[in-house]
Amino acid sequence: xxxxxxxxxxxxxxxxxxxxxxxxxxxxxxxxxxxxxxxx
Length: 40
Hints:
Elements: H1 2-34
């Protein structure tokens, strides 16, 4: 069980930046749809 906990934490650290980048892209798309083109 300890091994799988370490693996889960490793996967979380690996995917966390990608998830944050995805959220930023979605927020930019929403701003573009509203018509707010501010430096993106």
